[in-house]
Amino acid sequence: MDFWDRLDAVADRWNVLRHPFYLRWSEGTMTRPELAFYAGQYAYAVEALAAATSDLARRSPSTGNERHAAEEEAHVSLWAGFQEAVGSSGAEPLPETADCARAWADPDRSELRTLVSLYAIESAQPAISETKRTGLVERYGFEPGPATRYFDVHAVLDVEHARVARGAIAEAREPATSPDRDGEDDALVAEAERVLSANWRLLDGVDRVSAETR
């Protein structure tokens, strides 16, 4: 299994569309307070993603990195529009949420590990965003607009973000002949696993609290 196949396997293992939270989202069985609570928790992940892209742009200045960082910073406001639409006033992060935010924003990892984490997160976003947007409109009665705009954008834009990140990763990896290549690949796959499993656990936390209040 080559490097990209290994990343795909990690993405499949932690595909949050199979998480009970998203299954209920798609079924239309979530309550408005549950949507609001989720919106307040995932806001920390949105901010962490913006922080990660900003850190990458600072360490590796380029027009593409700076544009990406500016886009993710603007998406914090789009998420706030979703929060307002579902009646979320925000909340302190759950332990699982705080862990996810730390993993996504991690300023101590290398530039290459940051690229891999962004690729892992953003390559999953188009399908996730489509699912969320469809559920909001068809199951929960929201009109396209502030409630869906974050998802409208990510369903399209993250296709390009993931493509660019993949190209940058391919350029930055150790040469195939390098004795360090296998060890580097192991570390990069582990980084993808770290950020994707953290998102799964964020949803575990949201589901746990939702179950306690249902």
Structural overview:
The chain is mostly helical and 214 residues long. It has one domain (3-213): Heme oxygenase-like (Heme Oxygenase, Chain A, Up-down Bundle), CATH 1.20.910. 78% of the residues lie in helices and 0% in strands. It has 8 helices and no strands. It has helices at residues 3-13, 20-27, 32-59, 63-86, 95-105, 111-138, 149-172, 181-213.
Describe the secondary-structure layout.
Elements: H1 3-13, H2 20-27, H3 32-59, H4 63-86, H5 95-105, H6 111-138, H7 149-172, H8 181-213
Helix pairs in contact: 1-8, 2-6, 3-4, 3-5, 3-6, 3-8, 5-8, 6-7, 6-8
Features:
single chain; 214 residues; Heme Oxygenase, Chain A; mainly alpha; 0% strand
The class by helix and strand makeup works out as mainly alpha
How much of the sequence lies in strands comes to under 5%
Order of helices and strands: HHHHHHHH
Oligomer: single chain
Summarize the entry for a quick read:
The protein is mostly helical and 214 residues long. It has helices at 3-13, 20-27, 32-59, 63-86, 95-105, 111-138, 149-172, 181-213. The chain has a single domain (3-213), classed as Heme oxygenase-like (Heme Oxygenase, Chain A), CATH 1.20.910.
